[in-house]
Write a structure and sequence with these properties.
Elements lengths: L1 H45 L2 E2 L7 E2 L3 H7 L2 H31 L7 H13 L2 H11 L6 H8 L15 H26 L3 H9 L4 H12 L1 H16 L3 H6 L11 H10 L4 H32 L1
Antiparallel strand pairs: 1-2
Helix pairs in contact: 1-13, 2-13, 3-7, 3-10, 4-7, 7-10, 10-13, 12-13
Length: 302
C-alpha cells in the first residue's frame, strides 16, 4: 500500500515537474506558433489557392506553380538569386576570414580597425543605400572617376545598368556583412591553442602549411556556421536590393524575395507569391542539407 502511494506520489511529482517545464517554454512556443508556424502552414495552403486578399479563396491546384514557372520575371529572378548567393557567400566568407587573420595579429590600431570594419553591419540600411548610390553614380561618382583616372574610358553604369547593377549590390552586400562574420572568425582563431603553431614551427612548417593543416581544420565549426548563415541570409536578402535599386533597372536585380513582394503587394496575387515562397524554401532547404552532408567530407579532406 505504501509502495503504491509512493508510486502515485512519484507520478504526480513527475507530472508537476513536467508542467512547470512546459509553462516556461509556453510563451516562446506561442510566439513561434503565431508568428512562424501558422504563417508557414498557411503559405503552403495558399500556394494551391487563388486569392487577392479580398475575395473568397478558390482552390486551383498546381496552377500557381505552373504560372510562376512560365513567368519570365520569375525565371530571371531565380537565376539572379543563385548568382547573387554564390558570389556573396564565397566572397564574403573569403574576405571575412582574411580580415580576421590580419586583425588577429598584434598591429597598431587593431581595435580601431575591427570597430571600423564591423560598423557597416550595424549602420542604417537607408544611409548605406544613399551613400553607395552616390559612390556608384555613373557620371560623377568617385568610383567611376577613379576608374577613369587609371585608364578605364567607359566604366560600368553600376545601378543605372541592367548588366552591372547586380554586381554593385553584391559589392555592397560583401562590404556590409563581412565585419560581422569577421568577428565570428576572430573568436574561432582565438580558441586555437598557440602550442599547435609553436610545434608546427619547430617541425619546420611554413605559413601556408600552418594555415592549411592547423587554421582551416580548427576553424571548421566557425566556417560551417558562417557558410550556413551567409547562405540563408543571402537567399532572403530584400532590404538591400530594395534600397539600392528596387529591383531595377527593369527587373535586372529582382531576386526571388523581391518577386514574392511584388506578387503580394503590387499585384495582390497571394497564391503566386506563396508558390514562389515554397520554391525559395525548397532551395534553402536543399542547400542547407548539402552543406550539412558536406561538412564531414570537408573536414576529412583537410
Amino acid at each position: 500500500m505504501a509502495n503504491s502511494k509512493n508510486n502515485n506520489n512519484g507520478v504526480s511529482l513527475k507530472a508537476k515537474t513536467a508542467l512547470i517545464g512546459y509553462s516556461f517554454i509556453l510563451p516562446n512556443f506561442l510566439g513561434f506558433a503565431i508568428f512562424i508556424l501558422f504563417p508557414v502552414i498557411f503559405t503552403f495552403i495558399l500556394s494551391f489557392m487563388s486569392w487577392d486578399g479580398f475575395n473568397a479563396m478558390k482552390f486551383i491546384g498546381l496552377d500557381n506553380f505552373a504560372y510562376i514557372f512560365t513567368d519570365r520575371v520569375f525565371k530571371a529572378a531565380f537565376w539572379k538569386t543563385l548568382l547573387f548567393v554564390v558570389f556573396t557567400v564565397v566572397l564574403t566568407l573569403v574576405a571575412s576570414l582574411a580580415l580576421a587573420i590580419a586583425l588577429n595579429t598584434k598591429i597598431k590600431g587593431r581595435d580601431g580597425f575591427r570597430a571600423a570594419i564591423f560598423f557597416p553591419y550595424v549602420a542604417s540600411m537607408v544611409a548605406i543605400g544613399a551613400v553607395w548610390k552616390q559612390l556608384f553614380e555613373k557620371n560623377f561618382g568617385p568610383i567611376n572617376q577613379f576608374l577613369r583616372s587609371i585608364g578605364v574610358s567607359d566604366p560600368p553604369g553600376w545601378f543605372a545598368s541592367s548588366q552591372w547593377a547586380i554586381y554593385g549590390i553584391i559589392i555592397v552586400s560583401i562590404w556590409k556583412f563581412m565585419g560581422y562574420y569577421m568577428l565570428i572568425y576572430l573568436a574561432g582563431l582565438q580558441d586555437i591553442p598557440a602550442q599547435l603553431y609553436e610545434a608546427a614551427t619547430i617541425d619546420g612548417a611554413n605559413g601556408w602549411q600552418k594555415f592549411r593543416k592547423i587554421t582551416l581544420p580548427m576553424l571548421t565549426p566557425s566556417t560551417f556556421f558562417v557558410f550556413i548563415m551567409l547562405t540563408i541570409n543571402s537567399f532572403k536578402s530584400f532590404d538591400l536590393v530594395y534600397v539600392l535599386t528596387q529591383g531595377g533597372p527593369g527587373t535586372s536585380t529582382t531576386l526571388l524575395v523581391n518577386y514574392i513582394y511584388n506578387q503580394s503587394f503590387k499585384y495582390w496575387n497571394y497564391g503566386a507569391a506563396s508558390a514562389s515562397s515554397i520554391i525559395l524554401f525548397a532551395m534553402v532547404l536543399a542547400v542547407t542539407i548539402i552543406q550539412f552532408r558536406g561538412e564531414k567530407k570537408f573536414t576529412d579532406y583537410l
